[in-house]
Amino acid sequence: MNYLGKHIIDIDHIDRDFIENIFSITQRLKTQNKLKKPFDNKNICTLFFEDSTRTRLSFEKASNNLKANFHNLDLSTSSVNKGESFFNTIKTVESIGMDIYIIRHGSSGAAMFAAKNLRGTVINAGDGSHAHPTQALSDLFTIKEQKKDFTKLEISIVGDFLFSRVARSNILALLKMGSKVNILGPPELSSPKISDAYDQYNSLYPGNLKFYNELKQPLINSDIIMALRIQKERFNKETKVDLENYKSKWRIDKELLDQCKKNILIMHPGPMNEELEISHNVAHSDFSLINKQVENGVFVRQSIMQNIFEGED
Ligand code: CP
Q1: Is 4 inside any structural domain?
Q2: 5 falls within a domain
Q3: Residues with beta carbon inside 6 Å of ligand 1?
Q4: CA 123, CA 100: separation in Å to the nearest integer?
Q5: Which of 57, 130, 135 for mutating ligand 1's site (highest number of atoms within 8 Å of CB)?
Q6: Is residue 53 in some structural domain?
Q7: Which domain does 88 fall in, by range?
Q8: Which of 23, 104, 140, 205 could make an S-S bridge to 48, C-beta 3.0–4.6 Å?
Q9: Does 158 lie in the same domain as 98?
Q10: Which ligand 1 atom lies nearest to the CA of residue 132?
């Protein structure tokens, strides 16, 4: 079930059955890739108020695979540059006529605001530090392909939990699916106090979420390490992170992998700051699922939009 109806705003609105259903559709698309019928009467629009490579392009490819009409509002040449507000921009695009709005924005809550003000369906493509649900669903599908049973997995996520929307969505999705999750990082980026979300996850899934300010010991029993991007662009006067210190203590590199399980797998949502949070050798090694995460992102996003359209007919 999606408790928010058709909108995909965050993982907390969707349950395990909904996630399993998206995985089944995705699996079918990957193996058969046959469209039951074209969605050529449907209009999909990306509105990206923040930069993106993989999310925006994978939604475009997914829309084309569905034979829907794809539109992109190019923010760099839009009337936003003449001062048009977010509200007036989305209402203008609505008047032109869209069925699905895929919105990325620097402010947490922007996608929910759009969902409350638009007639069509809103998919959150990342809002501030809040949520990135389609990244989480793509990442979990990639894990399921490799490891099958979420309840047997211990996943260590390493890095910037202060600003990462990917972390907030991935952690909740993994806990919902029954995995154990370790949060690893320096206290200034990974204390339980940095977000109410982590307090809430702790009370919903007691014992399955652990915080560590050290790297090696929690990695010994981990099946997967997920490195997060250090979000330098969101740093402000209060952010006290020494990047050289971070690199020496927290980077996922080959030396560290030698101390992990032999079948350890490495993930990163991208874009990477190579050599800061992950070494080039590890990112492009046989342990790495990073390119698979991107590849699966197209199929998972296609499944989500197909599911929305089929629910409307
Ligand atoms: N992971 C992710 O959202 O990447 P992009 O910013 O390239 O879309």
Answers
A1: no
A2: no
A3: 52-55, 126, 132, 135, 269-271
A4: 7
A5: 135
A6: yes
A7: 11-132+297-312
A8: 104
A9: no
A10: 3
